[in-house]
């Protein structure tokens, strides 16, 4: 389900001839995006290569990608010589980065989020880039404002968010100096049933654990829809970079989400704290105007997540720490 390409994504890919390489494809979202690109390419029958690059510390991820027809290359993206040996490609999806662990090792986060983009841009100066970024670059935004917009002022809090602004600036530099077309995708937050904000809240309700209201409002988007939007950004890559928020169109109340899970799961939520007037939220109006509404509704995501949690299905065991307001991850 997560890797099934939408018709719009397939049409967008048809406008971007050439092989595709995904840098940093071994994370939570990369494998499904790689498979979606493979499936869309197969539907077009254009014979292009889809190549996923990562350290692939989990051999099972690489095996599943190979089974799906995605080529894989093991590579440390901080190794310039290794990156220089990567296959050429006309299209690059840049997903590499570090978030969790930043508080204990900020230097590595800065290297991954700022130095690696430079290495990648130098390796593929003539390629079309879709570069993943994050809504954290905006900082906290008034809930009453409807969320941060692409034209707004960036106010990153903490090493992670600051280094993500650095990543964007590096791509802007290479777009200006080498005419590399770039699309920057500010994502927050993609979810599937194994991880994400909805899973975190549902799991807390199911276990009778506290649900923090410190970050009282959030945005979410189903991972398949986020994957499709990333592909739709490929033909929009430009100089200077095209920038778009990718998230759901609804600004969700954490309190209301927890209460809905409580009713479905038959367990009243243990709510802690009070909502602040600001939150890490983005306005998705630009994406909606370009791509339409996400295909998967919030109601559907909540129903699926509740069923998944109540049945004890597999989880990735990676909390989002969405309630953090100090930028420390």
Word description of this protein:
The protein is α/β, with parallel strands linked by helices and 329 residues long. It has 2 domains: 7-137 and 155-188 and 221-246, NAD(P)-binding Rossmann-like Domain (Rossmann fold, 3-Layer(aba) Sandwich); 191-219 and 248-310, UDP-galactose 4-epimerase, domain 1 (Alpha-Beta Complex). It has 11 helices and 15 strands. The longest helix has 21 residues, at 158-178.
How is the secondary structure organized here?
Blueprint: H1 7-14, E1 20-23, H2 30-44, E2 50-54, H3 59-67, E3 71-74, H4 80-84, E4 91-94, H5 106-123, E5 128-134, E6 141-142, H6 158-178, E7 182-187, E8 190-191, H7 197-207, E9 210-212, E10 217-218, E11 221-222, H8 223-233, E12 242-246, E13 252-253, H9 254-265, E14 270-272, E15 278-279, H10 285-291, H11 298-310
Parallel strand pairs: 1-2, 1-4, 2-3, 4-5, 5-7, 7-12, 8-11, 9-14
Antiparallel strand pairs: 6-15, 10-13
Helix pairs in contact: 1-2, 1-8, 2-8, 5-6, 7-9, 7-11, 9-11
């Amino acid at each position: 389900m997560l890797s099934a390409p939408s018709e719009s994504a397939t049409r967008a890919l048809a406008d971007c001839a050439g092989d595709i390489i995904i840098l940093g494809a071994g994370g939570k979202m990369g494998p499904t995006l790689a498979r979606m690109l493979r499936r869309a390419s197969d539907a077009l029958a254009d014979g292009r290569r889809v190549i996923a690059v990562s350290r692939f510390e989990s051999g099972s991820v690489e095996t599943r990608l190979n089974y799906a027809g995605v080529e894989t290359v093991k590579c440390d993206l901080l190794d310039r010589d290794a990156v220089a040996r990567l296959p050429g490609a006309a299209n690059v999806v840049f997903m590499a980065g570090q978030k969790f662990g930043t508080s204990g090792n900020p230097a590595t986060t800065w290297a991954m989020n700022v130095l690696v983009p430079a290495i990648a841009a130098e390796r593929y100066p003539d390629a079309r880039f879709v570069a993943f970024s994050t809504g954290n670059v905006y900082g906290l935004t008034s809930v009453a404002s409807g969320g941060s917009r692409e034209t707004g002022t960036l106010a990153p809090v903490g090493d992670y968010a600051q280094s993500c602004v650095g990543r964007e600036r590096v791509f802007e530099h290479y777009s200006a100096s080498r005419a590399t077309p770039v699309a920057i995708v500010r994502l927050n937050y993609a979810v599937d049933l194994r991880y994400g904000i909805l899973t975190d809240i549902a799991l807390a309700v199911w276990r009778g654990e506290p649900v923090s209201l410190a970050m009282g409002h959030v945005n979410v988007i189903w991972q398949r829809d986020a994957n499709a939007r990333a592909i739709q950004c490929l033909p929009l890559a430009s100089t200077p970079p095209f920038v778009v928020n990718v998230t759901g169109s609804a600004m969700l109340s954490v309190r209301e989400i927890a209460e809905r899970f409580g009713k479905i799961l038959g367990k009243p939520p243990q709510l802690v704290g009070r909502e602040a007037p600001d939150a890490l939220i983005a306005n998705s109006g630009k994406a909606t105007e370009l791509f339409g509404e996400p295909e998967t509704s919030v109601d559907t995501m909540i129903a699926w997540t509740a069923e998944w949690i109540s049945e004890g299905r597999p989880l990735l065991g990676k909390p989002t720490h969405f309630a953090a307001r100090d930028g420390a991850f």
